[in-house]
Description:
Order of helices and strands of chain A: HEEHE
Structural class of chain B: alpha+beta
Radius of gyration of chain A: 12 Å
CATH architecture of chain B: 3-Layer(aba) Sandwich
Number of helices of chain A: 2
Number of strands of chain A: 3
Oligomer: heterodimer
Helix content of chain A: 25-40%
CATH topology of chain B: Glutaredoxin
Amino acid sequence: MAMDAVEIERLIRDGIPGADVRIEDLRGDGDHYAAYVTAAAFKGKSRVAQHQMVYAALGGRMGNELHALALTTAATQD
Amino acid sequence: MDKTVEERIRRDITENDVVLYMKGTPVFPQCGFSAAVVQVLSHLGVKFKGIDILVDPALRQGIKEFTNWPTIPQLYVKGEFVGGCDIIRDMYESGELVQLLAEKGVAAQAAA
């Protein structure tokens, strides 16, 4: 099972309104991606909390259909 | 989650300053992400307890529920979940990891 970049991006955008999302396919096998997510909703949140928000947006796919997602998150600067 | 698994997790992260739930063992990591965190900890000379979740499916599921974190590896310092591979690598590169360890009173040599 694998996922494609467009679906990952859509899920994160739907789950974190206003997020700026960029997906990079690391190996072209549909299983190893990098995601760069910037969102105002991350402001004041720890890195762990920010990543948990992205995982929640992916609705349980992380660690299942999606084997590896190198995640970089940041709060939107004012 | 199974009560005994939760108790075991609590005991492990309380009795050991630094605990790494990983795939494989520190000497034979079975996954690149686990190996990367082992490398960071070894590079900093941090003593840690490696726990192989591959040999314990109940623990493998339980640890994910315990932290609401879907992947392995997972690093704990003084009973607190610090992060997975991405976060540990970011913190290592920014120097935050050495700072956190110092704050928690865990011996570490700042990378040369």
